[in-house]
Design brief:
Blueprint (H helix, E strand, L loop, with lengths): L1 H25 L7 H25 L2 H5 L2
Length: about 70
């Protein structure tokens, strides 16, 4: 049980650590306009939402409570 929680917290930490770093890295390539930052943040947040949706598809919420 603790391994699952540690994995979730590690993946969230890496996502929110890598997300701004990549956005800051590609910002000068596209002229430094605010739309680049917004698009990068939107991409990562939608990827996170998609991962959560895929996880709930394979593990329904009721099964998660029975562990």
């Amino acid at each position: 049980m603790y391994a699952f929680a540690a994995t979730i917290f590690l993946s969230a930490y890496l996502l929110f650590f890598v997300q701004p770093m990549i956005a800051r890295f590609i910002l000068p390539w596209f002229g430094g306009v605010p739309a680049v930052w917004t698009t990068c943040m939107l991409f990562f947040q939608l990827t996170l939402l998609g991962g959560a949706a895929a996880a709930t598809k394979h593990c329904p919420p009721r099964a998660a409570w029975e562990v």
